[in-house]
Amino acid sequence: MKRSLRGLLATAFTALLISGCAIQQPSGVDRISDADAGRLLSQAEQQGPEQASLSRLEAATILAGQGDREAAFDAAAAVDEASLSERDRVRWALLFSELGRALDDPRAVLRATQVLDDELPMQGNEQQTLRERAQWARQAMDEPGRVQASLPALEGQDIRRIMVALPQSGPLSSVADTISNAMREHNKVRGQGVELTFVDSSQYSTDELYSRAQQMNAQLIVGPLDKEDVTRLEQRQSVPLPTLALNYGSGAQNQAAGLFQYGLSAEDEARQAARRAYQDGRRQVAVMVPDNDWGRRVGEAFWNEFHQLGGEVPNAVRYNPSNDVSSAVETALNVSGGRAQLGNIDGLFLLALPEYARQVPPMMDFYYAQKLPIYATSHLHEGTQERRLNQDLDDVMFVDIPWQIPDAAVGGAEALPFYSSYQALHGEADASLFRLQAMGVDAYELATHLSDLSSIQGFNGSTGTLSMSGDGRIHRELPWARFQNGRPAPILSPGLLGDE
Fold this sequence. Notes:
Layout: H1 6-19, H2 37-44, H3 49-66, H4 69-77, H5 86-102, H6 106-112, H7 124-141, E1 161-166, H8 173-190, E2 195-200, H9 206-215, E3 220-222, H10 227-234, E4 238-245, E5 257-261, H11 266-279, E6 285-290, H12 293-309, E7 316-319, H13 325-332, E8 347-350, H14 354-357, H15 360-366, E9 374-376, H16 387-390, E10 397-399, H17 406-410, H18 419-425, H19 434-448, E11 459-461, E12 464-468, E13 474-477, E14 480-484, E15 487-490
Parallel strand pairs: 1-2, 1-3, 3-4, 4-5, 6-7, 6-8, 8-9, 9-10
Antiparallel strand pairs: 10-14, 11-12, 12-13, 14-15
Protein backbone atom coordinates (compact mmCIF):
# COMPACT_ATOMS: atom_id res chain seq x y z
CA MET A 1 0.00 0.00 0.00
CA LYS A 2 1.55 3.31 -1.04
CA ARG A 3 1.14 6.65 0.67
CA SER A 4 -1.32 7.65 -2.08
CA LEU A 5 -3.72 5.17 -0.44
CA ARG A 6 -3.42 6.95 2.91
CA GLY A 7 -7.09 7.80 2.94
CA LEU A 8 -8.08 4.19 2.52
CA LEU A 9 -6.03 3.18 5.53
CA ALA A 10 -7.51 6.03 7.54
CA THR A 11 -10.97 4.74 6.69
CA ALA A 12 -9.97 1.27 7.86
CA PHE A 13 -8.77 2.58 11.19
CA THR A 14 -11.93 4.65 11.59
CA ALA A 15 -13.89 1.43 11.13
CA LEU A 16 -11.80 -0.19 13.85
CA LEU A 17 -12.64 2.69 16.20
CA ILE A 18 -16.36 2.34 15.48
CA SER A 19 -16.36 -1.46 15.83
CA GLY A 20 -14.76 -1.31 19.26
CA CYS A 21 -11.35 -2.73 18.39
CA ALA A 22 -10.11 -0.67 21.33
CA ILE A 23 -8.16 2.11 19.66
CA GLN A 24 -9.22 4.66 22.29
CA GLN A 25 -7.47 7.69 23.80
CA PRO A 26 -5.27 6.55 26.74
CA SER A 27 -5.71 8.04 30.14
CA GLY A 28 -2.96 10.33 31.39
CA VAL A 29 -2.24 11.97 28.01
CA ASP A 30 -3.93 15.22 27.02
CA ARG A 31 -5.82 15.17 23.72
CA ILE A 32 -4.09 17.23 21.05
CA SER A 33 -4.78 17.81 17.41
CA ASP A 34 -3.63 15.44 14.68
CA ALA A 35 -1.19 18.05 13.46
CA ASP A 36 0.62 17.91 16.81
CA ALA A 37 1.40 14.18 16.87
CA GLY A 38 5.06 15.09 16.47
CA ARG A 39 4.90 17.13 19.68
CA LEU A 40 3.82 14.01 21.58
CA LEU A 41 6.84 12.14 20.28
CA SER A 42 9.10 15.02 21.28
CA GLN A 43 7.58 15.06 24.76
CA ALA A 44 8.14 11.33 25.09
CA GLU A 45 11.89 11.87 24.85
CA GLN A 46 11.74 13.91 28.08
CA GLN A 47 9.26 11.77 30.02
CA GLY A 48 9.59 8.78 32.30
CA PRO A 49 9.05 5.25 30.88
CA GLU A 50 5.31 4.97 31.64
CA GLN A 51 4.34 8.43 30.43
CA ALA A 52 6.63 8.15 27.38
CA SER A 53 5.01 4.91 26.35
CA LEU A 54 1.54 6.46 26.61
CA SER A 55 2.66 9.45 24.58
CA ARG A 56 4.10 7.25 21.83
CA LEU A 57 0.99 5.10 21.78
CA GLU A 58 -1.19 8.19 21.43
CA ALA A 59 1.03 9.53 18.65
CA ALA A 60 0.93 6.19 16.83
CA THR A 61 -2.87 6.17 17.05
CA ILE A 62 -3.08 9.69 15.64
CA LEU A 63 -0.66 8.94 12.80
CA ALA A 64 -2.54 5.74 11.95
CA GLY A 65 -5.77 7.70 11.79
CA GLN A 66 -4.09 10.08 9.34
CA GLY A 67 -3.04 7.11 7.19
CA ASP A 68 0.70 7.62 7.81
CA ARG A 69 1.35 3.97 8.53
CA GLU A 70 5.15 4.12 8.39
CA ALA A 71 5.38 6.89 11.00
CA ALA A 72 2.66 5.21 13.08
CA PHE A 73 4.57 1.92 12.93
CA ASP A 74 7.80 3.58 14.06
CA ALA A 75 6.05 5.25 16.98
CA ALA A 76 4.33 2.03 18.06
CA ALA A 77 7.55 0.06 17.72
CA ALA A 78 9.27 2.48 20.14
CA VAL A 79 6.66 1.82 22.84
CA ASP A 80 7.89 -0.13 25.85
CA GLU A 81 4.76 -2.22 26.16
CA ALA A 82 5.80 -3.65 29.53
CA SER A 83 5.39 -0.20 31.09
CA LEU A 84 1.78 0.15 29.90
CA SER A 85 -1.30 -0.75 31.91
CA GLU A 86 -3.04 -3.99 30.96
CA ARG A 87 -5.73 -2.21 28.96
CA ASP A 88 -3.22 -0.01 27.17
CA ARG A 89 -1.10 -3.05 26.31
CA VAL A 90 -4.11 -4.58 24.58
CA ARG A 91 -4.71 -1.32 22.70
CA TRP A 92 -1.07 -1.17 21.68
CA ALA A 93 -1.10 -4.83 20.55
CA LEU A 94 -4.14 -4.31 18.35
CA LEU A 95 -2.66 -1.19 16.76
CA PHE A 96 0.88 -2.47 16.30
CA SER A 97 -0.23 -5.85 14.94
CA GLU A 98 -2.52 -4.12 12.44
CA LEU A 99 0.31 -1.87 11.28
CA GLY A 100 2.73 -4.79 11.14
CA ARG A 101 0.38 -6.78 8.97
CA ALA A 102 -0.28 -3.82 6.69
CA LEU A 103 3.47 -3.36 6.23
CA ASP A 104 4.04 -7.11 5.80
CA ASP A 105 6.23 -7.35 8.91
CA PRO A 106 5.41 -10.65 10.64
CA ARG A 107 8.11 -10.11 13.29
CA ALA A 108 6.28 -7.01 14.49
CA VAL A 109 2.97 -8.88 14.53
CA LEU A 110 4.48 -11.67 16.61
CA ARG A 111 5.90 -9.15 19.06
CA ALA A 112 2.50 -7.51 19.40
CA THR A 113 0.54 -10.73 19.80
CA GLN A 114 2.73 -11.92 22.66
CA VAL A 115 0.12 -10.28 24.89
CA LEU A 116 -1.96 -13.40 24.28
CA ASP A 117 0.45 -15.31 26.52
CA ASP A 118 -0.05 -12.87 29.40
CA GLU A 119 -3.75 -13.58 29.96
CA LEU A 120 -4.69 -9.91 29.87
CA PRO A 121 -8.36 -8.98 30.20
CA MET A 122 -9.75 -8.35 26.74
CA GLN A 123 -12.94 -8.73 24.78
CA GLY A 124 -13.58 -11.89 22.81
CA ASN A 125 -13.35 -10.16 19.44
CA GLU A 126 -10.03 -8.58 20.44
CA GLN A 127 -8.59 -11.93 21.43
CA GLN A 128 -9.81 -13.52 18.21
CA THR A 129 -8.32 -10.69 16.14
CA LEU A 130 -4.92 -11.08 17.79
CA ARG A 131 -4.99 -14.86 17.37
CA GLU A 132 -5.75 -14.54 13.67
CA ARG A 133 -2.93 -12.06 13.22
CA ALA A 134 -0.51 -14.30 15.14
CA GLN A 135 -1.46 -17.20 12.87
CA TRP A 136 -0.86 -15.04 9.80
CA ALA A 137 2.55 -14.03 11.13
CA ARG A 138 3.63 -17.61 11.86
CA GLN A 139 2.59 -18.74 8.40
CA ALA A 140 4.31 -15.77 6.80
CA MET A 141 7.53 -16.44 8.70
CA ASP A 142 7.52 -20.05 7.48
CA GLU A 143 7.41 -19.04 3.81
CA PRO A 144 10.67 -20.31 2.21
CA GLY A 145 11.20 -17.11 0.27
CA ARG A 146 10.84 -14.80 3.29
CA VAL A 147 14.50 -14.41 4.17
CA GLN A 148 16.39 -11.17 4.61
CA ALA A 149 18.65 -10.46 1.61
CA SER A 150 21.49 -9.57 3.97
CA LEU A 151 22.40 -8.32 7.42
CA PRO A 152 23.07 -4.59 7.15
CA ALA A 153 25.86 -4.86 9.73
CA LEU A 154 27.69 -7.46 7.62
CA GLU A 155 26.60 -6.63 4.07
CA GLY A 156 29.48 -6.76 1.63
CA GLN A 157 32.00 -7.86 4.27
CA ASP A 158 34.27 -10.88 4.39
CA ILE A 159 33.75 -12.57 7.74
CA ARG A 160 37.19 -12.68 9.37
CA ARG A 161 36.64 -12.21 13.12
CA ILE A 162 34.31 -14.56 14.99
CA MET A 163 33.85 -14.94 18.72
CA VAL A 164 32.80 -18.46 19.71
CA ALA A 165 31.01 -18.22 23.06
CA LEU A 166 30.43 -21.76 24.35
CA PRO A 167 30.65 -23.22 27.89
CA GLN A 168 33.98 -24.67 28.98
CA SER A 169 32.51 -26.02 32.20
CA GLY A 170 29.18 -27.47 33.21
CA PRO A 171 26.93 -30.17 31.68
CA LEU A 172 27.28 -28.91 28.09
CA SER A 173 31.06 -28.46 28.17
CA SER A 174 31.88 -31.79 26.47
CA VAL A 175 29.45 -31.04 23.63
CA ALA A 176 30.87 -27.52 23.32
CA ASP A 177 34.44 -28.85 23.33
CA THR A 178 33.68 -31.26 20.46
CA ILE A 179 32.06 -28.51 18.39
CA SER A 180 34.88 -26.05 19.14
CA ASN A 181 37.62 -28.52 18.20
CA ALA A 182 35.86 -29.27 14.90
CA MET A 183 35.63 -25.54 14.14
CA ARG A 184 39.36 -25.15 14.84
CA GLU A 185 40.28 -28.09 12.63
CA HIS A 186 38.00 -26.98 9.80
CA ASN A 187 39.37 -23.45 10.00
CA LYS A 188 42.88 -24.85 9.68
CA VAL A 189 41.92 -26.99 6.69
CA ARG A 190 40.06 -24.15 4.97
CA GLY A 191 42.93 -21.71 5.43
CA GLN A 192 40.73 -18.66 4.87
CA GLY A 193 42.39 -16.45 7.45
CA VAL A 194 39.39 -16.42 9.80
CA GLU A 195 40.25 -15.52 13.39
CA LEU A 196 38.30 -17.63 15.87
CA THR A 197 38.33 -16.37 19.46
CA PHE A 198 36.96 -18.85 22.00
CA VAL A 199 35.38 -17.46 25.17
CA ASP A 200 34.02 -19.45 28.11
CA SER A 201 30.35 -18.43 28.09
CA SER A 202 29.80 -19.98 31.52
CA GLN A 203 31.88 -17.16 33.05
CA TYR A 204 29.88 -14.22 31.70
CA SER A 205 26.34 -12.97 31.38
CA THR A 206 24.85 -12.62 27.91
CA ASP A 207 25.26 -8.84 27.90
CA GLU A 208 28.87 -9.17 29.08
CA LEU A 209 29.58 -11.54 26.20
CA TYR A 210 28.23 -9.04 23.69
CA SER A 211 30.30 -6.30 25.29
CA ARG A 212 33.46 -8.42 25.08
CA ALA A 213 32.71 -9.30 21.46
CA GLN A 214 32.38 -5.63 20.56
CA GLN A 215 35.60 -4.82 22.41
CA MET A 216 37.35 -7.55 20.40
CA ASN A 217 35.93 -6.04 17.21
CA ALA A 218 34.25 -9.38 16.43
CA GLN A 219 31.87 -9.30 13.48
CA LEU A 220 29.56 -11.91 14.96
CA ILE A 221 29.10 -14.42 17.78
CA VAL A 222 28.67 -18.18 17.54
CA GLY A 223 26.67 -19.34 20.57
CA PRO A 224 24.94 -19.82 22.95
CA LEU A 225 24.46 -23.58 23.16
CA ASP A 226 22.01 -23.86 26.04
CA LYS A 227 18.35 -23.98 24.94
CA GLU A 228 17.17 -21.70 27.74
CA ASP A 229 19.76 -19.07 26.80
CA VAL A 230 18.59 -19.19 23.18
CA THR A 231 14.97 -18.89 24.30
CA ARG A 232 15.77 -15.73 26.24
CA LEU A 233 17.61 -14.26 23.26
CA GLU A 234 14.83 -14.98 20.77
CA GLN A 235 12.37 -13.04 22.90
CA ARG A 236 14.33 -9.82 22.40
CA GLN A 237 13.49 -7.41 19.64
CA SER A 238 17.10 -7.62 18.38
CA VAL A 239 20.60 -8.66 19.46
CA PRO A 240 23.56 -6.24 19.70
CA LEU A 241 25.71 -8.26 17.29
CA PRO A 242 24.79 -10.85 14.60
CA THR A 243 24.50 -14.15 16.45
CA LEU A 244 24.47 -17.80 15.35
CA ALA A 245 23.02 -19.79 18.25
CA LEU A 246 23.81 -23.50 18.28
CA ASN A 247 20.41 -24.60 19.49
CA TYR A 248 16.76 -23.68 19.02
CA GLY A 249 14.66 -21.68 21.44
CA SER A 250 11.41 -23.07 22.77
CA GLY A 251 9.23 -20.28 21.33
CA ALA A 252 6.98 -20.80 18.36
CA GLN A 253 9.09 -18.28 16.43
CA ASN A 254 12.42 -16.52 16.77
CA GLN A 255 11.56 -12.82 17.09
CA ALA A 256 15.00 -11.25 17.55
CA ALA A 257 16.44 -9.50 14.51
CA GLY A 258 20.04 -10.55 13.91
CA LEU A 259 19.64 -13.88 15.73
CA PHE A 260 20.00 -17.13 13.77
CA GLN A 261 19.50 -20.62 15.16
CA TYR A 262 21.10 -23.87 14.01
CA GLY A 263 21.39 -27.32 15.53
CA LEU A 264 20.85 -31.03 15.06
CA SER A 265 17.09 -30.85 15.47
CA ALA A 266 15.35 -34.18 15.97
CA GLU A 267 12.09 -32.36 15.23
CA ASP A 268 13.36 -31.55 11.72
CA GLU A 269 14.04 -35.24 11.18
CA ALA A 270 10.57 -36.19 12.41
CA ARG A 271 8.93 -33.71 10.05
CA GLN A 272 10.99 -35.07 7.17
CA ALA A 273 9.92 -38.61 8.08
CA ALA A 274 6.29 -37.49 8.02
CA ARG A 275 6.71 -36.01 4.55
CA ARG A 276 8.47 -39.13 3.31
CA ALA A 277 5.79 -41.45 4.66
CA TYR A 278 3.08 -39.38 3.02
CA GLN A 279 4.97 -39.26 -0.29
CA ASP A 280 5.21 -43.05 -0.11
CA GLY A 281 1.44 -43.26 0.03
CA ARG A 282 1.10 -43.86 3.75
CA ARG A 283 -1.96 -42.27 5.28
CA GLN A 284 -2.28 -43.96 8.70
CA VAL A 285 1.02 -44.20 10.56
CA ALA A 286 1.45 -45.39 14.15
CA VAL A 287 4.04 -43.66 16.33
CA MET A 288 6.47 -44.97 18.94
CA VAL A 289 8.49 -42.41 20.92
CA PRO A 290 10.17 -42.44 24.38
CA ASP A 291 8.12 -41.33 27.35
CA ASN A 292 10.10 -38.17 28.09
CA ASP A 293 10.19 -34.53 27.00
CA TRP A 294 12.39 -35.34 23.99
CA GLY A 295 9.95 -38.00 22.81
CA ARG A 296 6.99 -35.70 23.31
CA ARG A 297 8.53 -32.89 21.25
CA VAL A 298 9.62 -35.17 18.41
CA GLY A 299 6.35 -37.08 18.40
CA GLU A 300 4.37 -33.85 18.18
CA ALA A 301 6.57 -32.65 15.31
CA PHE A 302 5.79 -35.82 13.35
CA TRP A 303 2.08 -35.75 14.17
CA ASN A 304 1.66 -32.07 13.30
CA GLU A 305 3.45 -32.39 9.96
CA PHE A 306 1.68 -35.62 9.00
CA HIS A 307 -1.71 -34.27 10.03
CA GLN A 308 -1.14 -31.08 8.05
CA LEU A 309 -0.41 -33.15 4.96
CA GLY A 310 -3.65 -35.07 5.40
CA GLY A 311 -2.44 -38.17 7.24
CA GLU A 312 -3.69 -39.71 10.50
CA VAL A 313 -1.95 -41.19 13.53
CA PRO A 314 -4.23 -44.00 14.75
CA ASN A 315 -1.96 -45.05 17.63
CA ALA A 316 0.71 -43.04 19.46
CA VAL A 317 2.74 -44.92 22.07
CA ARG A 318 5.08 -43.29 24.57
CA TYR A 319 7.24 -46.16 25.76
CA ASN A 320 9.60 -46.59 28.70
CA PRO A 321 13.02 -47.47 27.20
CA SER A 322 13.74 -49.66 30.25
CA ASN A 323 10.65 -51.79 29.77
CA ASP A 324 10.10 -54.76 27.47
CA VAL A 325 9.58 -53.80 23.83
CA SER A 326 6.70 -56.18 23.28
CA SER A 327 4.07 -54.18 25.17
CA ALA A 328 4.81 -51.01 23.20
CA VAL A 329 4.67 -52.85 19.87
CA GLU A 330 1.45 -54.59 20.89
CA THR A 331 -0.21 -51.27 21.62
CA ALA A 332 1.13 -49.53 18.51
CA LEU A 333 0.00 -52.32 16.17
CA ASN A 334 -3.30 -53.31 17.82
CA VAL A 335 -2.08 -56.83 18.54
CA SER A 336 -4.91 -59.24 19.23
CA GLY A 337 -4.72 -63.02 19.39
CA GLY A 338 -0.96 -62.88 18.81
CA ARG A 339 -1.30 -61.02 15.51
CA ALA A 340 -1.04 -57.33 14.57
CA GLN A 341 -4.33 -55.84 13.39
CA LEU A 342 -3.21 -53.50 10.60
CA GLY A 343 -6.53 -52.59 9.06
CA ASN A 344 -6.04 -48.92 9.92
CA ILE A 345 -2.20 -48.82 9.99
CA ASP A 346 0.08 -48.68 6.95
CA GLY A 347 3.34 -47.51 8.54
CA LEU A 348 5.27 -46.91 11.77
CA PHE A 349 7.33 -43.91 12.86
CA LEU A 350 10.03 -44.89 15.36
CA LEU A 351 12.15 -42.65 17.57
CA ALA A 352 14.59 -44.82 19.47
CA LEU A 353 18.23 -45.29 20.36
CA PRO A 354 20.06 -48.29 18.80
CA GLU A 355 19.66 -50.81 21.62
CA TYR A 356 15.89 -50.35 21.79
CA ALA A 357 15.38 -49.87 18.06
CA ARG A 358 17.06 -53.19 17.21
CA GLN A 359 14.39 -55.04 19.19
CA VAL A 360 11.42 -53.52 17.36
CA PRO A 361 11.59 -55.22 13.90
CA PRO A 362 11.99 -58.77 15.33
CA MET A 363 9.01 -58.13 17.60
CA MET A 364 7.00 -56.90 14.62
CA ASP A 365 7.95 -60.08 12.75
CA PHE A 366 6.72 -62.09 15.72
CA TYR A 367 3.34 -60.39 15.44
CA TYR A 368 3.16 -60.97 11.65
CA ALA A 369 3.82 -57.32 10.75
CA GLN A 370 7.14 -57.88 8.98
CA LYS A 371 6.02 -56.01 5.86
CA LEU A 372 4.95 -52.85 7.67
CA PRO A 373 7.35 -50.03 6.63
CA ILE A 374 9.29 -48.32 9.42
CA TYR A 375 10.42 -44.68 9.18
CA ALA A 376 13.01 -43.58 11.73
CA THR A 377 15.33 -40.75 12.70
CA SER A 378 19.12 -40.87 12.77
CA HIS A 379 19.18 -41.82 16.44
CA LEU A 380 19.01 -45.56 15.77
CA HIS A 381 22.27 -45.41 13.76
CA GLU A 382 25.48 -45.36 15.77
CA GLY A 383 27.66 -44.81 12.74
CA THR A 384 29.82 -47.84 13.52
CA GLN A 385 30.16 -51.00 11.47
CA GLU A 386 27.98 -53.19 13.67
CA ARG A 387 26.73 -55.35 10.83
CA ARG A 388 25.68 -58.31 12.97
CA LEU A 389 23.73 -56.20 15.44
CA ASN A 390 22.24 -53.96 12.79
CA GLN A 391 20.88 -56.85 10.73
CA ASP A 392 17.87 -56.72 13.03
CA LEU A 393 17.20 -53.28 11.51
CA ASP A 394 17.18 -54.52 7.92
CA ASP A 395 14.59 -52.71 5.76
CA VAL A 396 14.18 -49.90 8.30
CA MET A 397 14.35 -46.52 6.52
CA PHE A 398 16.03 -43.62 8.30
CA VAL A 399 17.56 -40.20 7.74
CA ASP A 400 21.08 -39.27 8.74
CA ILE A 401 23.71 -36.64 8.03
CA PRO A 402 25.79 -37.17 4.86
CA TRP A 403 28.98 -37.60 6.89
CA GLN A 404 27.45 -40.64 8.65
CA ILE A 405 26.16 -42.41 5.53
CA PRO A 406 28.49 -41.34 2.68
CA ASP A 407 27.75 -44.34 0.44
CA ALA A 408 23.99 -43.91 0.72
CA ALA A 409 24.07 -40.10 0.66
CA VAL A 410 26.48 -39.20 -2.12
CA GLY A 411 27.86 -42.47 -3.43
CA GLY A 412 31.12 -42.44 -1.51
CA ALA A 413 33.14 -40.41 0.99
CA GLU A 414 35.12 -38.58 -1.70
CA ALA A 415 31.94 -36.79 -2.81
CA LEU A 416 31.10 -35.53 0.68
CA PRO A 417 30.90 -31.81 1.46
CA PHE A 418 34.20 -30.63 2.96
CA TYR A 419 35.91 -33.94 2.35
CA SER A 420 39.30 -32.73 3.62
CA SER A 421 37.80 -31.86 7.00
CA TYR A 422 35.93 -35.17 6.97
CA GLN A 423 39.23 -36.98 6.57
CA ALA A 424 40.86 -34.96 9.33
CA LEU A 425 38.02 -35.59 11.81
CA HIS A 426 36.92 -39.10 10.89
CA GLY A 427 39.73 -40.71 12.83
CA GLU A 428 38.15 -39.82 16.16
CA ALA A 429 37.70 -42.97 18.29
CA ASP A 430 34.21 -42.11 19.57
CA ALA A 431 31.78 -42.37 16.68
CA SER A 432 29.01 -40.88 18.83
CA LEU A 433 30.78 -37.49 18.59
CA PHE A 434 30.98 -37.43 14.81
CA ARG A 435 27.64 -35.70 14.29
CA LEU A 436 28.73 -32.94 16.67
CA GLN A 437 31.97 -32.56 14.73
CA ALA A 438 30.00 -32.22 11.52
CA MET A 439 27.83 -29.66 13.30
CA GLY A 440 30.94 -27.68 14.19
CA VAL A 441 32.00 -27.66 10.53
CA ASP A 442 28.60 -26.42 9.38
CA ALA A 443 28.46 -23.84 12.19
CA TYR A 444 31.75 -22.40 10.87
CA GLU A 445 30.43 -22.37 7.30
CA LEU A 446 27.14 -20.74 8.29
CA ALA A 447 28.91 -18.09 10.31
CA THR A 448 31.19 -17.16 7.41
CA HIS A 449 28.16 -16.95 5.08
CA LEU A 450 26.04 -14.59 7.21
CA SER A 451 27.06 -11.59 5.12
CA ASP A 452 25.05 -13.14 2.26
CA LEU A 453 22.02 -14.93 3.66
CA SER A 454 20.83 -16.00 0.22
CA SER A 455 23.88 -18.28 0.02
CA ILE A 456 22.51 -20.32 2.92
CA GLN A 457 19.38 -21.38 1.03
CA GLY A 458 20.00 -24.93 -0.17
CA PHE A 459 23.51 -24.96 1.31
CA ASN A 460 25.14 -28.37 0.89
CA GLY A 461 26.51 -29.02 4.38
CA SER A 462 28.06 -31.82 6.40
CA THR A 463 24.84 -32.24 8.40
CA GLY A 464 22.43 -32.04 5.46
CA THR A 465 21.05 -29.53 2.99
CA LEU A 466 20.56 -26.34 4.98
CA SER A 467 17.96 -23.63 4.46
CA MET A 468 16.67 -20.72 6.48
CA SER A 469 13.09 -19.89 7.39
CA GLY A 470 11.92 -16.32 7.64
CA ASP A 471 12.59 -16.10 11.38
CA GLY A 472 16.26 -17.00 11.09
CA ARG A 473 15.96 -20.64 12.09
CA ILE A 474 18.09 -22.91 9.95
CA HIS A 475 16.66 -26.30 9.05
CA ARG A 476 18.19 -29.45 7.61
CA GLU A 477 17.01 -31.83 4.90
CA LEU A 478 18.79 -35.17 5.30
CA PRO A 479 19.45 -38.02 2.86
CA TRP A 480 17.60 -41.30 3.30
CA ALA A 481 19.08 -44.74 3.80
CA ARG A 482 17.77 -48.24 4.39
CA PHE A 483 19.50 -50.97 6.36
CA GLN A 484 20.48 -53.90 4.17
CA ASN A 485 22.59 -56.72 5.62
CA GLY A 486 23.26 -54.49 8.61
CA ARG A 487 24.61 -51.57 6.58
CA PRO A 488 23.05 -48.29 5.38
CA ALA A 489 22.21 -48.56 1.68
CA PRO A 490 20.89 -45.94 -0.78
CA ILE A 491 17.19 -45.32 -1.00
CA LEU A 492 15.32 -43.21 -3.55
CA SER A 493 13.97 -39.99 -2.11
CA PRO A 494 11.24 -39.10 -2.53
CA GLY A 495 9.15 -41.71 -4.29
CA LEU A 496 6.63 -44.43 -3.80
CA LEU A 497 8.09 -47.56 -2.26
CA GLY A 498 6.57 -49.57 -5.00
CA ASP A 499 8.80 -47.73 -7.49
CA GLU A 500 12.02 -48.41 -5.64
